[in-house]
Amino acid sequence: MLRFAERTKGAKRSAIRELLKYTEQPEVISFAGGLPDPAAFPLDFLANVAQEEILHNAVKSLQYTTTEGKRPLRQSLAQWLLEEGIKTTMDQIVITAGSQQGLDLLGRVFLNEGDAVFVSLPTYLGALQAFRAYQPTLVGIPLEEDGMDLDFLRRAIREARRAGHDPKLIYVVPDFQNPTGITWSREKREELLEIAEEEDLLVVEDIPYRWLRYEGEHLPTIASLDRYGRVIVLLTFSKILAPGLRIGALVGPEEVVNMVVTLKQGADLCGPSLTQRLAVRFLTDYNLKEHFARLCQHYRGKLAAMLDALARHMPEEATWTKPEGGLFVWVKLPDGVDTTKMLERALAHKVAYVPGQPFFADGSGQNTMRLSFALATLEQIEEGIRRLGAVVKEEIAALSLAKQG
Ligand SMILES: Cc1ncc(COP(=O)(O)O)c(C=O)c1O
Fold first, then answer.
1. pTM to 2 decimals?
2. Ligand 1 nearest-atom number relative to CA 173
3. Nearest CA, atom 8, ligand 1
4. Looking at residue 181, which CATH number applies to its domain?
5. Of 242, 266, 286, which one is at a domain's C-terminal end?
6. What is the DSSP letter of 213?
């Protein structure tokens, strides 16, 4: 018999990945994936620099590299982050295989069994998966329109401490969160830092969607407001360049970065040299301003089309977020609707979404769903939301019939 480790006991495959199998039939209009649109990848640029790097820079692009990642990449990232108001040096940066590896490494470095990690309800599913491997106590904090309910957070930290769970990390995605699209207000960003300082916790600020703002003003990163050295930033090139390169970065206090590098050595020796070189070239040789403007232009119309279609096709019992960026819109249906069960009806109508429940650390959220507008065309968005509106109306009608019966 196989005797797996204790930590595998609660391990679950992502419901979303399992589900994507069913949404791949060509007639299904899918809002389920969380992937960026390949039409926005700078193919010629990547192909040219990959060829140059392989043919003329093989030692740097094909040999092992350092565990913390290539110096020029860390240097150019530090410079770029300065534009975001984050003062950092290359010694405070470690390159990771996407921000997902950053999440796993933070779990390794900080979490003993039972330690408390505070996450919003809902939160990014991949963070729950990464942390769960280290058997923490995940504490869900309600998410409001402008960020976490911080009074609730304060109480939850004290309760966790009283119950013997050492409060360690607060995990947040403050810009166009996955799955809701919600962005934190400046006030809440500032207050979160005060809580972290008062209660002696670290904030993990995960910002994959930050550069995908289609409307409104940029808000400062939590890290740029931090006077206490309590923020660890997770960055990724997945949504602004291409996820298959698997390039991200963890940025934080030097002691944290040193410990992460030490444990990362055992995990992978080093990240991929070739794609790190491509990322350096992207930061130094590509016009980032123009690139981000093109990306935003690409997604802006899709988001507007989805919000417009929802307003026309959803029944009045449904509500949804109105994000100013990112890749997702979050829909809430009346209590009693179970979006996991409803998915069968949706697939019969040839439309797919992600049920919201897996994003909730406490198993709630049955009546919610996540819609991504990134991969669909404008026509598919209109037709898909029309189908989804019909599905939701049928489901609500079936539910009220069942109640009467
Ligand atoms: C909030 C958030 N964090 C982290 C990730 C992981 O992305 P990657 O590992 O490709 O950087 C994602 C991917 O969708 C995400 O939405």
1. 0.96
2. 1
3. 98
4. 3.40.640.10
5. 286
6. B
